[in-house]
Amino acid sequence: MTNLSIPEIPFSLRFVASSRRIFRWLTSTKVILSLIMLVILFYMVIVPLYRMLETTFTYQDKDLFRVPTAEVGEFTLFHYIRMLTSEYSKPYLRDPLVHSMEISVGATGLAFAIGGLLAWLCIRTDMPGRKLINQLALLPYIMPGWTIAQAWTVLFKSRITGGLPGVFEFLVGQSPPPWLSYGPVPIMISSALHYYTFFFLFISAALMSIDSNLEEAGDLMGANRSRILRKITFPLILPALLSGFIMTFSKVMGTYGGPALLGVPVKYYTISTMIRSAINIGDKADGFVLAITLILFAMVNIYINQRLVGTRKSYETIGGRGFVAQQTKLRNAKGLLTTLVVIFQVLVIVLPIGLLLYDTFVLVPGNYSLDNLTLHNWIGESVKNINNGSPGILRNPKIYAYAWNSIRLSIWTALFTALLGVILGYAIVKGRGTRLAKLVEQLAFIPYVIPGIAFGAVYIAMFARQMGPIPPLYGTFALLVVVSVAKHIPYSSRSGVSAQLQVGRELEEAAEVAGANFWQRFRHIIFPLTSSGFVSGFLLTFITTMRELSLIILLVTPSTMVLATQTMRYKENGDDQMANAVIIILIVLVTIGNFIIGKFRGGSLKKGLGM
Amino acid sequence: MSKTITIINLSKHFGKVIAVNNVSLKIDAGTFLTLLGPSGCGKTTMLRCVAGLEDPDGGEIYIGDKLVFSYDRGISLSPAKRDLGLVFQNYALWPHMKVDKNITFALEIQKMDKAEMNKRVKESLAEVKMEGYEDRYPREMSGGQQQRIALARMLAYRPSVFLLDEPLSNLDARLRMDMRSELKRLHYVAGATSIYVTHDQVEALTMSTNIAVMKEGVLQQMDTPDRVYHYPANLFVADFIGNPKVNLLEGKVERKGLVNMGTFEVAVDTYNTTGKVVVAVRPEDITISTSPEKGAVEFTAYSVLPAGADTTIIAQREDISITVRVSGISHLKMDDKIWLKFDAATLNLYDKVSGKLITA
């Protein structure tokens, strides 16, 4: 063999060589994309969080009344002392915190019971109509989160709480007990009826991926049914269960709609409604202290859950998809269970929408008899003593403007989110194993742990004035897009990663060897192969943005009002029928959007959710 | 058209794992070089470094006269500028493109004109005997057909270097045999310098003009198949190449030209060595007889395994077990007494400590 050696390189050239190496690393596609993502994540996540913290530690304009010696912008622990130890602590922070915990625990438990049972019935039994239930389970993604709460008020509002009678009182002739009209119980139930789908989807996916041979092996060894359930099935679906817990718990913690509709009228405040009222009266810093409390609780919750599962037990997909499900015969219980499930679905879907719709046809509020029906709320001219003189919804130009705002907010958000998803997915998957990619992945996860209303609060602090190259955005439509995109980053990065993982790296490398540059590879290979993931991500974001409330309630202004926030405003002004009409329009729009987008390239909600 | 490939002191590690450790190779133009070794020996990483899909941590690579990679100079050309084609283990056909699109992708990037492109598609499909498959999607073809298309895709843009990463390992045994001869023929016709990665030593022996055996990122031996088979540079190579495996017998040189195995002695060529050694002898280099013969050693037939063309016999003597291969079907029975005779010219002697071939 010839003796091969590399000639010595002069010192001056070594410097050139190492700068070339660094330059090459910096300009490699995955590094550039990761760095761009880092900058974006820095601006969208880190800076707002920092600005929020900063606000809580400095005196604000309003504090000058309380502390005469204070100077605006000076460092202080004033807000923390005020919120944690003063006489304000109990009504502003401690009681709402207890309430938030109360409803989160209650709603999560109830949602788990419903979702788990439905998942088991759908995947592991011979119950008729399983397919239909499977599809209906996605409906709550389409309906706004507070739909059931709003329908609840139509049914159970009562004169005891100083309002008009609801349908229940009208039919029965008696007021419903106060605990059923407002307060923790209805909030818990209405939230659980909305969020049970997380458990349903997670658990049914987990049940499907368990090879029932694992259970049969236990069966052969003589374990009885409950023992198998406890010792084999349950531990196997535990990771999925905990994902459901984390998701539901932090969603309910950060939810605004339900507590606002069913809690505020009886002064049952949660952290989320308290944040809004603090910020509305100008106590921004106090509101931020509450938001930070909420974030800390959400983080502790996730931490505890992860400790409980432990990384060693994360065997979510063992056995792959090739399952041979052994189906339990329901026998005698079949009829009963099926009836119960049908009743449940009616309760969750048909009844709420029916109630809301019926209420919009009522002329004199509180009178639900057939001769009081009218189309006035929809198409009537302005009449002085009805609905504070506003015309029917369909004649109100503002509603069209708000609907257009909703639609373009959803489209822009979905577009940017799906795009970010593709780029994040590419950067994370191609950089697997590098610290840079890991950092990007972790930063992208942060918005997940920040409850919706707190995230909105974060964005008030940010962008109120010029930030580097970014102009002040408060009150602009762009801010709503930015906050919605930011909140969706964790979902888009997750679905982006799973889409990229499906494209084997050889497919791109083959194109690279064939001479294609990054843009050609992206256009001809990567994008066509991930487009169904792109569309699914677009669809999911479109729908969730359209009916998003908690996130943007603090950020909308009259000119950037969307349908979801307008519903709340009508509610707050006591125009219940208008509010109900708007939520119906919202549901119709979302459904149409779902239908249209689903037509493209095999996009589906389920795929968008990473299932 | 074909080019030499020169690899100098190439190194690549992933974290703490050293995948390629200071490897130097010179591959002459037109050579079919096989990188052979067990999985994880760094052969695929080597190939990917040559292709430009990995950035090595040290060394230089020349393709022809062109320096395509140099750590010390900070040079690394993109795969596209290295004038090479790569066939992947899992074919990596683009699933959303039909066969013709798969083939013309690279040509379109080169902005070739339509007529020439169609001609190339026809030609390359003919070369892999897949005429008429232009309109198929990859999933509509069998694994063997997909592999042929992957080859055609590479042939169509006529690179001067072919890189093949275990292209046959996903095929069934029968198809693999057919494809071996096809591939060898393709290389013969195209004449492009080829680097072929495999863990299958039969593939390496049958197809290559040169074999480079690797272990744990270190090049063990680079030679012709004949020399790698008959004069393995060390015990690892001796053990890795050959099926059934080579017999490795530990012994001691007590008198010049004689190795003491404990209960018997074997004559070797005049090696000037002493001390502990390992004698390597291929199963087919041992002659077997059913009666005592001069210089033959008595064994017992522990197991007899006829396989049509040849028979493998496991011979046992106390704790020494030797594999012998004879052609045709043997009529020996188990526990028959047999006498084995070794031919000094076919034996290789290795140093017990260093494992290296003793040549003098």
Termini Cα gap of chain A: 56 Å
CATH topology of the largest domain in chain B: Rossmann fold
Please count the helical segments of chain A: 27
SS-derived structural category of chain A: mainly alpha
**How many strands, which pairing sense, and closed or not: the largest β-sheet of chain B?**
6 strands, mixed
Order of helices and strands of chain A: HHHHHHHHHHHHHHHHHHHHHHHHHHH
| Average pLDDT over all residues of chain A | 84
Radius of gyration of chain B: 24 Å
How would you name the CATH homologous superfamily of the largest domain in chain B?
A: P-loop containing nucleotide triphosphate hydrolases
Shape of chain B: globular
Q: How helical, in percent, are the residues of chain B?
A: 10-25%
Strand order of the biggest β-sheet of chain B: 7-8-9-3-10-11
- CATH classification, class level of the largest domain in chain A: Mainly Alpha
CATH topology of the largest domain in chain A: MetI-like fold
Largest sheet entry of chain A: none
Q: What's the β-strand tally of chain A?
A: 0
Overall geometric form of chain A: globular
Unreliable spans of chain A: 311-324
What's the helix and strand layout?
The complex is a heterodimer of chains A (611) and B (360).
Chain A (H helix, E strand, L loop, with lengths): L10 H17 L1 H28 L6 H4 L11 H7 L4 H36 L5 H7 L2 H4 L4 H10 L10 H6 L5 H4 L2 H26 L2 H9 L4 H30 L2 H6 L8 H10 L3 H26 L23 H28 L15 H4 L17 H34 L4 H15 L2 H10 L15 H25 L3 H9 L4 H29 L16 H10 L3 H22 L7 H4 L3
Chain B lengths: L4 E10 L2 E11 L4 E5 L6 H9 L6 E6 L2 E5 L4 E2 L7 E4 L11 H11 L4 H14 L15 H14 L4 E5 L7 H18 L2 E6 L2 H7 L2 E6 L2 E6 L1 H6 L4 H6 L6 E9 L2 E3 L4 E3 L7 E7 L4 E4 L7 E10 L3 E8 L2 E8 L9 E6 L5 E4 L9
